[in-house]
Design a protein that fits this description.
By secondary structure, this protein is of the alpha/beta class. Helices cover 45% and strands 18% of the residues. It is built from ten helices and 13 strands. The protein has a six-stranded parallel sheet with strand order 2-1-3-4-5-11, sandwiched between helices. Helix 5 crosses helix 6 (182-195) and helix 7 crosses helix 8 (240-250). The termini are far apart. The relative contact order is 0.12. The model is unreliable at 19-42 (pLDDT under 50).
Length: 326
């Protein structure tokens, strides 16, 4: 008789301990703000949207988030910012899947023109969740609209600017991104379209061994193969200082004109110091605001259908005129 009573007491004690530990963990998790992202993230009656980025913490995303947050507040919407800190499309796709499972009301995301990404965006659409791409597009998907710069026109604008600065002649080294993106391809198409009218201007890239390397290694390689190069254009955001430093080690008496496709604080500082010739203003905050406005319009069935694309302004900013020139 004593053994059953003893085992009963042990069982009750273990159950009580388990309940106590679970309660403590729950309180601890709440204190830390931990959530299980696979569950519906918010239970508010407000429309709930997420912005998913490949570049969390970057100047670009901070600006986009500022505009998006203000727009969401004005519309009475709940907004969250998810993403990864280094470009990782596989992880981006996983987060879209989580957003679908969480039953969010709308998704704003940096696009990627890849079949697996397109498939996941289409899954969201078939689940009744509108998707708007921002800054980079996924034109083959069923996304509702794209908000951001016209990257082909960026290349056109920068090509005209470079031709003017070089007075129609010279060799220009193109510093590429580690992973070729559709954004970069469109920019290069625009550059080539303009500069083919200037036969004395030649665009060159580093050899295959270094084409995906750091900006300084690409610069060294280009100067090894094209010592007459006097200008560089950086497709890699914030690569201006690396280009200048690499060129400076080759010849301290030479001055290389450097052109960038971004207007980050780092690039703007180099422009102010006359180290970088020009940058390109992207108006990221406006992208964030407009993308939220479009999701709101879709959810309210207001002024539909949406346009296929909404292009935000672009402008060249240089050391002679920090206000930029259209």
């Amino acid at each position: 008789m004593k053994k059953p009573i003893f085992y009963s007491i042990i069982g009750i004690s273990l159950a009580a301990l388990a309940v106590t530990l679970y309660s403590m963990f729950t309180l601890y998790s709440n204190d830390l703000g931990m959530t299980n992202i696979a569950e519906p993230v918010l239970t508010s009656s407000k429309p709930h949207i997420v912005i998913i980025s490949q570049e969390q913490g970057s100047y670009m995303m901070n600006e986009i988030q500022r505009g998006a947050r203000d727009a969401a507040a004005s519309h009475g919407m709940a907004i969250e910012f998810w993403g990864v800190y280094r470009s990782n499309v596989e992880e981006l796709i996983k987060q879209v899947d989580i957003a679908i499972a969480s039953k969010v009301d709308g998704i704003i995301i940096e696009g990627a023109d890849r079949p697996d990404f397109v498939q996941m965006v289409n899954k969201a659409i078939f689940s009744g969740i509108p998707v708007v791409t921002i800054n980079s597009d996924s034109p083959d998907s069923l996304r509702k609209s794209y908000v951001g710069s016209d990257h082909y026109q960026e290349g056109i604008l920068m090509g005209k600017h470079i031709a003017q600065k070089l007075v129609g002649q010279g060799t220009v080294g193109v510093i590429t991104n580690t992973e070729a993106s559709d954004t970069d391809k469109l920019r290069q198409q625009g550059l080539h379209e303009v500069l083919k009218s200037y036969p004395a201007i030649k665009l060159v890239t580093s050899s295959m061994d270094n084409v995906n390397g750091p900006a300084n290694m690409q610069t060294f390689d280009i100067l090894n193969h094209y010592p007459a190069a006097k200008a560089f254009i950086g497709l890699k955001a914030e690569s201006g200082r690396s280009i200048v430093q690499a060129g400076g080690t080759r010849s301290r008496s030479s001055h290389y004109q450097v052109f960038m496709f971004d207007d980050s604080p780092q690039t703007m500082k180099l422009i102010q110091e006359n180290i970088v010739e020009s940058g390109l203003s992207q108006h990221y905050e406006e992208m964030g605001k407009m993308s939220v406005d479009l999701v709101k319009r879709w959810l309210d069935s207001d002024q539909l259908p949406l346009n296929n694309s909404y292009f935000t302004p672009i402008s060249v900013v240089d050391s002679a005129d920090e206000g930029g020139s259209k």
